[in-house]
Design goal:
heterodimer; A: about 180 residues; 8 helices; B: about 80 residues; mainly alpha; 3 helices
């Protein structure tokens, strides 16, 4: 993280090329957050570019005493994604019914792809706050206290949201697999 | 394959998405264009405090105000008593 602060100081001193270090360091988790919130790669690159550009343009207002750089960056990504989601469509209801497996004898790869699609749909159906907490914790590795600060709530609430999100996803998967949830 | 394994495999894939080739180059092209017109500047110095520091400062300010009012009250009361 010290590397981040040193890089930010160089960028603010006028060395724009130094910003590449931050782009390359965080591009994968930023894509993970964006694709998880948007439920797929469609439009993810445009949003990821916007996120990194917005972070660059607002780098002067970044305060290291308030948040770590990745937390600040993921907050920009999360906000941008939810704006895009609201623009695109309404989310699915939380307990939308899962389709049953297509064929009992389907090959393993196809079956696993179906399972991933089911989980993607289950993630897509989560309420915004639950999805945000789950994505930031499980896919972006943010600690609970930082997510709590970002979501303007307490750590207990964040833990509860993540727990309920996991339960929902596992339950959906278990129902799909025909297991008791 | 049990559901835990499937869930963990799904999560692992979500954590490691493919990043389009040349993504960083395209971002840096936009960054350079932005830098040419409006380079980022450090915001004017502001007092950046941790939330617990801000809360402690607020509590101290409230306590100081209460103490001040308390002193005023006792001062007034002793003056009234002295006059009587």
């Amino acid at each position: 993280m010290d590397d981040d602060l040193g890089t930010i100081q160089r960028v603010l001193a006028g060395e724009a090329e130094a910003y590449r270090f931050l782009v390359e360091r965080y591009q994968r988790p930023v894509f993970a957050v964006i694709q998880a919130v948007l439920c797929g790669p469609d439009g993810a690159e445009d949003i990821a570019q916007d996120v990194f550009l917005a972070a660059y343009q607002n780098l002067g207002s970044f305060a290291a005493s308030r948040a770590k750089f990745p937390t600040w960056l993921f907050a920009i990504a999360r906000n941008r994604c939810f704006t895009e989601r609201r623009r695109r469509a309404r989310p699915l209801p939380l307990d939308a019914v899962a389709d049953p497996p297509s064929t009992a004898g389907a090959d393993s790869a196809a079956r696993q792809r179906e399972v991933r699609e089911q989980l993607d749909r289950a993630l897509d159906s989560l309420p915004e706050k639950m999805r945000s907490a789950f994505v930031l914790a499980e896919l972006a590795d943010l600690p609970y206290d930082e997510i709590a600060r970002l979501e303007a709530t307490n750590t207990g609430t964040i833990k509860s949201r993540i727990f309920r999100a996991r339960e929902h996803l596992r339950g959906r998967l278990a129902r799909y697999m025909g297991e008791p949830s | 394959v049990n559901t835990d394994d499937l869930f963990n495999e799904w999560r692992r894939r979500k954590r490691e998405p493919d990043v389009p080739a040349g993504f960083a180059d395209r971002v840096m092209a936009r960054v350079r264009a932005s830098h040419a017109t409006a380079p980022p500047r450090k915001a004017a110095s502001t007092l950046a405090l941790h939330p617990w520091m801000a809360n402690a400062l607020k509590a101290a300010a409230v306590a100081a105000a209460a103490a001040l009012w308390g002193c005023k009250f006792f001062s007034l009361a002793s003056t009234v008593l002295a006059i009587r």
